[in-house]
Design goal:
The structure is a homodimer.
Chain A: H1 8-22, H2 29-36, H3 40-43, H4 50-73, H5 78-95, H6 97-102, H7 109-113, H8 117-127, H9 137-157, H10 168-184
The structure holds a DNA duplex (30 and 30 nucleotides).
DNA sequence: CCGTTTGCCTAAGATGGCTAGGCTACTACC
DNA sequence: GGTAGTAGCCTAGCCATCTTAGGCAAACGG
């Protein structure tokens, strides 16, 4: 009897692939076990439970996305950086819808603090160096940017823009123009 | 043997309440049946299946939210209307997290077209009358607004802003200021 | 008051999450 | 190279949920 060679990492990877194919909600311990040709119960040697699996997928996705964004950001500043960040974010979400959805699950505070989510925050803040915003405006701007990106990508994915013919790519680039404009000229109190 | 008096509406209502209490993912046919003191199977006389239940909750939430927004919008224009819309939206999401989450499930195109989601789109567009934007800028602006609202609310709910001490209420109102600014001065190509 | 419809029931299969406990392949160490 | 010991997977079995099929009783219309 040959062993399947399960590891937490392989399971997480396979789970991430599965998520992109069939959606996070269908990433089940049973389905994963089937893929590896083992019994469900065997996975519990590596995973605490089903939720643990999804959290791991989320953390993987956060790290992958952070890497992409970091690469996109290298050597850029100002609007150039803003657009590169935004496109990296959106592209990742479209290539990996399941992983992106997995990223949305609630992480408990400590897990979140140890995740690549903090890198996202740092990088977002780095973009703002090109726009010379002082606190607390900087924090507000970071939150607005993040909201816009996440909101757009998430609405696009769930078909929220379907009812209007206008190409979403165009709306996206105009939204980035608008974001650049408002960051350049952040309204003072 | 007294009948429980189940109806689709009562089930949907109860499901919505349940969603706010324990989250949509825990709105199960079984749990709902328990609440009404009937057997699981009985619900299938009124509901097609579990997904049908969640869709109905989503449609209920969309309609409720549209009503609220309509009320908030009455007699307002310009930034006043923008802020009223945004606050109605955010308040609803915070009072009814489960229903808000339910709203995010994919509706098939026909269902979506027959939902109160179209009222949302109309009302969002109505706000822009105060900002004198022609197409296609109007569509782009509608999408950006919607993205910002949804993104902010959704990140706030999943704790995406937790890592920075700044009060989210403040960031919210500054984000609305910024949105107003960019709508007032929409960047031309 | 009697048939028809409506509303809820029991029964039962499928799938998934998870635990307890057993057996076997590897690994390390003498 | 034998032999602990541990790591990896298995069987068995429980409970919850979803769903279908078919039965029976309450409500209601004529």
């Amino acid at each position: 009897m040959v062993r399947a060679g399960l590891t937490v990492d392989r399971l997480t990877m396979a789970g991430a692939e599965l998520a992109d194919e069939v959606g996070v909600e269908n990433v089940t311990v049973a389905a994963l076990a089937r893929q590896f040709g083992v019994k469900d119960a065997s996975l519990y040697f590596h995973l605490k439970n089903a939720h643990d699996l999804r959290v791991r997928i989320a953390l993987l996705a956060l790290a992958e996305l952070a890497d992409r964004v970091a690469a996109a950001l290298a050597g850029r500043a100002g609007k150039d950086a803003l657009v590169a960040f935004a496109n990296a974010y959106r592209d990742y979400a479209r290539e990996h819808p399941g992983r992106y959805a997995a990223m949305q699950i609630d992480l408990d505070p400590q897990t979140a603090a140890a995740s690549a989510g903090v890198r996202h925050a740092e990088m977002t803040r780095a973009i703002l160096r090109g726009y010379r915003l002082a606190e607390p405006d900087q924090t507000d701007a970071v939150r607005m940017m993040h909201s816009t990106f996440h909101g757009f990508v998430s609405l696009e994915r769930t078909g929220g823009f379907r009812h209007t013919p206008r190409a979403t790519d165009d709306s996206w680039s105009r939204t980035l123009d608008a974001l650049d404009a408002v960051l350049t000229n952040w309204p003072s109190r």
